Amino acid sequence: MSEGNEQPIIGLTVGDPAGIGPEIVIKALQNDEARASIKSVVYADRAILQQALDTLKIDWTLNAVDHPSAGRFEKGCVDFVDCGILDGPIAYGEISADGGHAGYGYLNRAIDGALSGDVVGLATAPLNKESLQAAKVPHIDHTSVLNERAAHRLPMTLFVVRKMKIFFLTRHLSFREIADAITHDSIVEYLPLCDLYLRQLGADDPVLAVAALNPHGGEQGLFGREEMEVIQPAVAEAQKQGLNVRGPVPADSVFHQALEGRYDGVLSLYHDQGHIASKTVDFHGTVSFTMGLKFLRTSVDHGTAFDIAGTGIADAHGMVETMKAAGQYAQVVRDRLDMEPIV
Fold first, then answer.
1. What is the helix, strand, coil percentage profile of the chain, to 5?
2. Which of 14, 156, 278, 329 could form a disulfide with 22 if both were Cys (CB 3.0 to 4.6 A apart)?
3. Residue 256 sits in the same domain as residue 308
4. Which of 241, 269, 297 is a domain's end point?
């Protein structure tokens, strides 16, 4: 899409201001492809954005707006909503209550904008969990805040990289806990939502695959019985309910097959199973979607990188891809928000 013509207005948040978030947002706004895909309005403080511009030695104009639609949306200008939290620069690379409070405040202002329809969706830079704790924020991360304030259905994380889309049945568990957490009921609950969220992203008749847990899919019990006793019966039940789902498919091939287009989405069974697949394909190009909200939220899939914050060397490729993904999908999700699961 060309600039100024049809792009959705997307709210950008800089995350924790002591991290690389402000830097990668400013760098991404310089990228022609990112800027052509959306009309962007940043939720931050003037002092933080000016600090990032000074660090990067970029002479751009800061344009504070009361309403996102009032942005100029032109190169050389950062349109932003001044959140009024910090009135001066912050020390880069340090855990602090100020950083946690500010990042949390930026996110909440952006959620306000998305819920009111001032912006179509959000693209977010990373928060720091320890800074949120220092600020005594009652949430551990973005997802917790978004779930509380903007859930429409059961929210799910979806990784998108090139043609591959990966959902996660379980996430932050120790490896010893994973097998017990993979249940027939949880798979049956998640598969209709995976199907729905793929349809909300534009797939009319999505084909889903469920990754296997054990090597070679368990080899009929030789390497484990989870596939025979839990995963395959759940897949069979989902098929009877009308879902186009396959599996369990051995994990050493299912992601490659999805990348080739055989499957529209893959349900990964645990955190690293899907993370390793996506990040090996393109570490910086993997975009995290939060589905099941009242709007689409896209995010970089990396942290605040306090060790390099303020040095000017942060790679903004992930933020560029996050903005482009929001431009491609945010309005589609809005238009299809009231779709119902097949079952």
1. 45, 20, 35
2. 14
3. no
4. 269
Confirm if 146 and 293 have CB atoms less than 8 A apart.
yes
Query: What pLDDT band is residue 286 in, cutting at 50, 70 and 90?
Result: very high
Q: Which two tokens stand for residue 106?
A: 């930026």
Could you give the CA distance from residue 130 to residue 111 in angstroms, rounded to a whole number? Answer: 22
Q: Where are the beta strands (DSSP E) in the chain?
A: 9-13, 39-44, 61-64, 77-82, 121-124, 151-161, 164-168, 208-211, 245-249, 265-268, 287-293, 296-300
Would you say 44 and 14 are in contact if contact means Cβ atoms under 8 Å apart? yes
The Cα diameter of the chain in Å comes to 64
Q: Within this chain, do residues 181 and 307 fall inside the same structural domain, yes or no?
A: no
Indicate the DSSP class of residue 118: S
What pLDDT is stored for residue 84 in this prediction? 96
- The number of distinct structural domains making up the chain is 2
Global pTM reads 0.91
Q: Are residues 119 and 17 in the same domain?
A: yes
Rounded Cα distance, 123 and 131, in Å: 20
Angle at 111 between CA 37 and CA 278, to 5 degrees: 55
Parent domain of 109: 1-153+282-343
pLDDT digits (tens, 9 = 90+) for 206-245: 999 999 998 787 567 666 788 889 999 999 999 999 999 9
